[in-house]
Amino acid sequence: AAIPAVIAYNRFATSVDRLSVRYESFMEEFVNILQRKG
Fold first, then answer.
1. Calpha distance 27→6 (Å, rounded)
2. pTM > 0.70
3. Residue 17's pLDDT band (boundaries 50, 70, 90)?
4. What 3 state SS string does 1-38 have?
5. Rounded CA gap, 22 and 15, in Å?
6. Nearest-5° angle of CA 27, CA 33, CA 35?
């Protein structure tokens, strides 16, 4: 039972990493837009 848990955890960690990268790039673009309007 240990190995499937490790695989599931790795998949989960990878998707969280991808999500945080996407969120960071979104925040950067959002800040850029705000700065342009200001």
1. 31
2. no
3. very high
4. CHHHHHHHHHHHHHHHHHHHHHHHHHHHHHHHHHHHHC
5. 11
6. 100
